């Protein structure tokens, strides 16, 4: 497949995945597999940059994420699935890039400034954390990725990656790496159960691995139109989380249409809307849950070992070329 464009993306293993990851990222990754040469990486070094004081869950989370990916349709036969730390070349290339990245570029990075400001209880004013985008650049350049599927929050990192790659090219007079383009998802961030953005820290998510009962409970607790204190008051459908979810997860569009109509007229109770949503969500997630339960830890390990083997062949070749640029003996 020499003409296929290369895609690389990654997720930090900070916990199990929720349905926001599915609609925002994974459903796209699944489609990309048929069109592109895909590398999907668990960014465990990146997780360690913020979790270094408490790293005990990272390994377990990495395996859980790989299971979530496969359950959602990431296919180890089509894509290279691996964990970043299995391929030491990521750190090697990050070290090279760190030498030519001006401090100012990193200090000015909005994600870095925001995290330093917002995150409390963790000491993030470290050398490693400042270099977060440098390692991300290495992830991308190691496989010479053309496209990087990310959310808008990652755009500053992609811009830095392009700048670092450009600087490498101009210093060593060699265009070893393509400048990667972000590939943004069309779906905006999925709203959480409480109408804020779905996020681990808000506890307002539905996990891919939640049981039927848990989903029911969560859906029943969902935020709806606050002005509708009684079922006979006409309600607003637009921007209402319950209907956003119906649109995304309920395959019975006739039912959704009917519910919306009655909701607008004040002719349906929240309970019915939520009951039907819980059912639809469960039907949607059932095949994912089933597939997930069939993947053992050892099967997941086997998949990443094979994926890493394939990815590493590419990574090693890249490092040989990089070292030639640096006049290093290999
Ligand atoms: N920083 C990304 C995030 O938090 C994860 C990541 C690490 C990544 N390396 C990457 C994403 C390379 C794309 C490409 O979401």
Explained architecture:
With 330 residues, the protein is mainly α. The chain folds into two domains: 6-190 and 298-325, 3-Layer(aba) Sandwich (Rossmann fold); 212-291, Tyrosyl-Transfer RNA Synthetase (Orthogonal Bundle), CATH 1.10.240. It is built from 14 helices and five strands. The chain has helices at residues 19-32, 44-51, 58-71, 89-100, 103-107, 110-118, 127-130, 132-142, 155-172, 212-220, 241-249, 253-265, 270-293, 297-325; strands at 6-11, 37-42, 80-83, 147-150, 181-184. The protein has a three-stranded parallel β-sheet. A two-stranded parallel sheet has the order 4-5. 38% of the residues are buried. It binds tryptophan. The site of tryptophan has 13 residues, from strand 1, helix 8 and strand 4.
Number of strands: 5
Q: Just name the CATH architecture of the largest domain.
A: 3-Layer(aba) Sandwich
SSE order in H/E notation?
EHEHHEHHHHHEHEHHHHH
What ligand species are in this complex? Answer: tryptophan
Q: What is the CATH fold-level name of the largest domain?
A: Rossmann fold
Question: What's the domain count?
Answer: 2
Mean residue pLDDT: 95
Radius of gyration: 22 Å
Point out poorly predicted stretches.
none
Q: Tell me, what's the shape?
A: elongated
In percent terms, what proportion of residues is strand? 5-15%
Give the class from helix and strand content and strand pairing. Answer: mainly alpha
């Amino acid at each position: 497949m020499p003409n296929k464009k290369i895609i690389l993306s990654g997720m930090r293993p900070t916990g199990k995945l929720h349905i926001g990851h599915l609609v925002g990222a994974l459903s796209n990754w699944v489609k990309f597999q048929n069109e592109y040469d895909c590398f999907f990486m668990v960014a465990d070094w990146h997780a360690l940059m913020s979790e270094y004081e408490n790293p005990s869950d990272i390994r377990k989370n990495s395996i859980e994420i790989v299971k979530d990916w496969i359950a959602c349709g990431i296919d180890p036969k089509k894509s290279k699935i691996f964990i970043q730390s299995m391929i030491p070349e990521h750190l090697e290339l990050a070290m090279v890039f760190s030498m030519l990245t001006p401090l100012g570029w990193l200090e000015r990075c909005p994600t870095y400034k925001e995290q330093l400001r917002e995150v409390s209880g963790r000491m993030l004013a470290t050398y490693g954390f400042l270099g977060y985008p440098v390692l991300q650049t290495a992830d991308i350049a190691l496989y010479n990725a053309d496209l990087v599927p990310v959310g808008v929050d990652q755009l500053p990192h992609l811009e830095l990656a392009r700048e670092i790659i450009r600087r490498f090219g101009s210093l060593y007079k060699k265009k070893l790496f393509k400048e990667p383009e972000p590939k943004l998802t069309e779906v905006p961030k999925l709203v959480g159960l409480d109408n804020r953005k779905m996020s681990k820290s808000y506890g307002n998510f539905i996990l891919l691995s939640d049981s039927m009962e848990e989903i029911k409970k969560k859906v029943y607790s969902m935020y709806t139109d606050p002005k509708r204190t009684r079922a006979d008051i006409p309600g607003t459908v637009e921007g209402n989380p319950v209907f956003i979810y119906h649109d995304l997860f309920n395959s019975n569009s006739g039912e959704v249409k009917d519910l919306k109509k009655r909701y607008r007229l004040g002719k349906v109770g929240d309970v019915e809307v939520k009951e039907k949503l819980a059912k639809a969500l469960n039907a949607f997630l059932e095949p994912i849950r089933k597939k997930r339960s069939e993947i053992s830890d050892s099967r997941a390990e086997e998949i990443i070992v094979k994926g890493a083997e394939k990815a590493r062949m590419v990574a090693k070749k890249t490092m040989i070329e990089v070292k030639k640029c640096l006049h290093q003996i290999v």
